[in-house]
UniProtKB/TrEMBL annotation:
Protein name: ABC transporter permease
GO cellular component: plasma membrane
Family: Belongs to the binding-protein-dependent transport system permease family.
Primary residence: membrane
GO biological process assignments: transmembrane transport
Membrane topology label: Multi-pass membrane protein
CDD domains named in the record: TM_PBP2
Transmembrane segments: 9-30, 104-123, 144-161, 173-192, 227-253, 273-295
Domain of life per record: Bacteria
Lineage, highest ranks first: Bacteria, Pseudomonadati, Pseudomonadota, Alphaproteobacteria, Hyphomicrobiales
Length: 308
């Protein structure tokens, strides 16, 4: 398995380079630059030229990209142009909030989604299945920011159970976690239900019934273990998407985090900070993909056999 893992990691290198080019290019092609936020109104052109030379913005874009990528590969994310602080320091302050929010949302969507998927599969085509899948349909089509505003209106403004915004105490995490987790719950529920139904049709299930094993043991121990393979893969893939989805939720609930830092820096055209934030989100998606492949190989002997 080790040679396959090494090849799989090496495959991420060109993906990382391509993503870095896209991030750098799109950001620098947007109108405006961070110098606009540093100069006073009416400043002469010489002041702008001096400022651009100080931050290396007067060089050709390929040269700027090469310098930036070289520093990133050395672990240097640069210095924020507007905030005038190391980018790594800004991300280190924001990342724990996003990881806490994303981790709890992933845990919520995993536990609730798998549980609802099992119930829907066990009571297939009956009222529990229809009720769960109806709720899943609503949850999967509801935008995060809209759901967050509704939860905020009901549970914060009307009932006063949770704070409207901020990150003080555990109760400030409840509504943001629900906002992100409910969308993931819908996806996990659908996949678990389909995987359970498909697993029940396999020959080994018929053999287990013929051996006289209790139906509950077959469903919960053997069928569920087989059905969890695609579920675990999807959950690993959602690691990066949950961090990305936290961007809008952090803004809606005015929480500190990577998303709030990204949106603020984007408005200021602070290139080093935005590039670093987007690169972190892209790396989370890539590492989630790698983790999903590794977990699938560990759980499924057929995948391990294909490697060899």
């Amino acid at each position: 398995m080790l040679p396959w893992l090494i090849r799989r990691v090496l495959m991420l290198v060109p993906v990382f380079l391509a993503v870095s080019v896209v991030i750098f290019s799109i950001l620098h092609f947007l109108p405006g630059d961070p110098i606009d936020n540093l100069l006073k109104v009416g400043s002469p052109a010489s002041a702008r030229a001096k400022m651009e030379a100080r931050y290396g913005l007067d060089r050709p874009l390929p040269v700027q990209y090469g310098i930036w990528l070289g520093k990133v590969l050395q672990g240097d994310l640069g210095t924020a142009i507007v905030a005038r602080r190391p980018v790594a320091e800004l991300i280190a302050q924001a990342m724990p909030h996003s990881l806490r929010l994303g981790g709890l949302a992933l845990l919520f969507s995993s536990v609730v989604g798998v549980t609802l998927g099992i119930i829907a599969a066990l009571w297939r085509d009956r009222w529990p299945d229809r009720a769960i899948m109806g709720g899943v349909l609503v949850g999967s089509t509801m935008p995060n920011f809209w759901l967050g505003l509704i939860l905020m209106l009901v549970f914060s403004v009307w009932m006063g159970w949770f704070p409207v915004s901020g990150a003080r105490g555990w109760n400030s995490l409840v509504l943001p976690v629900l906002t992100i987790g409910l969308g993931g719950t819908a996806l996990v529920t659908r996949i678990t239900r389909v995987a359970m139904i498909e697993a029940v049709r396999q020959d080994f299930v018929t053999l287990l019934h013929a051996k006289g094993l209790p139906p509950w043991r077959i469903e919960l121990l053997h069928v569920l273990r087989h059905a969890l393979i695609p579920v675990v893969t999807i959950l690993a893939l959602r690691i990066g998407w949950i961090l990305g989805g936290a961007i809008t939720v952090e803004v809606v609930f005015a929480r500190p985090g990577l998303g709030t830092l990204l949106i603020k820096s984007l408005g200021q055209h602070d290139y080093p900070v935005v590039q670093a934030c987007l690169l972190m989100l892209a790396m989370a998606v890539m590492l989630g993909t790698l983790l999903g492949d590794v977990v699938q190989a560990i759980m499924d002997p057929r995948v391990r056999a294909a490697m060899g």
